[in-house]
Amino acid sequence: MAFLEIDDMGTVIYDYQIEQIADGNDEALPEAINAAIDEVMGYLTPNQKKNWQDGRPLYDVDTIFAKTGTERNSLLLQITKTITKFHFIELCNADILYERAKSNYDRALTKLKDLANGNLTIKSLPLLDNSVDESGEEPLPYRSGSRTKFNHE
Predict the structure, then answer these.
(1) By the 8 A CB rule, do 56 and 118 touch?
(2) pLDDT per residue rounded down to tens, the chain (153 residues)
């Protein structure tokens, strides 16, 4: 069982719309679900850039997306459903207002970026323990210094 299932999509898109858009292609919605999960994970997964060490919360993405049923975070689930719907209606927006779906998608991405940047905090999401690195030293939030003095000789 995955973080988001086809049966969960009933809160953002009707079953008849799913059937019309998929038009017999049983892989269309699961592909959109996987793409949306990958997109959300991509926003929340820290990379090797220094700006991820600025004190913002680092979420344990694997633990978050391993949860199923009622253990899932409802806001993150709703964001993932909205992104899934937008990916799914790229095929055809039968009986769906594209502008409304696009504005919902944009709002979901804004919330996701706020969550990734630390502007929005969800206490129920598990965090990575980044207080001590492999060498046993605490990471420094920034580094300062200057170049050696240049002399004209």
Answers:
(1) yes
(2) 589 999 999 999 999 999 998 888 899 999 999 999 999 998 888 777 766 677 778 888 899 999 999 999 999 999 999 999 999 988 787 777 888 889 999 999 998 888 888 778 777 788 777 654 555 565 556 667 788 888 887
Torsion-angle region of 67 (φ positive above 0: left; ψ -120 to 50: alpha; else: beta): beta
Q: Tokens 């269309």 correspond to what residue?
A: 28
Q: Which of 101, 88, 1, 83 is nearest to 44 (CA)?
A: 83
Residue 19 exposure: Cα atoms within 13 Å on the Cβ side = 3
The C-alpha atoms of residue 109 and residue 38 are separated, in whole angstroms, by 13
* Paired tokens of 6: 């086809």
